[in-house]
Design goal:
Elements: E1 5-8, E2 14-19, H1 25-40, H2 51-62, E3 67-74, E4 77-89, E5 94-104, H3 113-127, E6 133-135, H4 142-150
Parallel strand pairs: 5-6
Antiparallel strand pairs: 1-2, 2-3, 3-4, 4-5
Amino acid sequence: MAGDQMINTTADTSLRVVRADYGNADHAAALVEVLDAYARDPAGGGKPLAAFTRANLVAALAQRPQAFSVLAFRGEAAAGLVNCIEGFSTFACRALVNVHDVAVLASFRRQGVAQAMLALVEQIARERSACKLTLEVLAGNISANRLYQTLGFQSYQLDPAMGQAQFLQKWL
């Protein structure tokens, strides 16, 4: 599949990173499995995905041409997931890609899974002529913050005198 990356980590084990095919039952199952594990983790809120979300998420993503996902597998086992949504930068007048979810199952952490998935995300964003990647991360998620800084992510600000941007939400 175009966009696949193969990363050899040891002589007998490899990591396969792919652009998710929402029509592929194995990819769909892996996406829901990894996202549910992330939702159950304290960093994801500590609650399982709702039954509605589990049943409808993949089809809903497939209906949105601005959405794409990247999956990581070690052998046949799902190891990680990144969900992305394309947005638009009015200042640059170009697409941007928001990295919405980055999840690596606990047994695969600290093995380069997130870094490999984000490399494919960056490749896809460049294919879409995006001007930047954006993401949000909890301040207390030290390992994720370190990774993102290593990969070149920085806090957003236009003028240092105005301070850094804050991420806010309002549930509807």
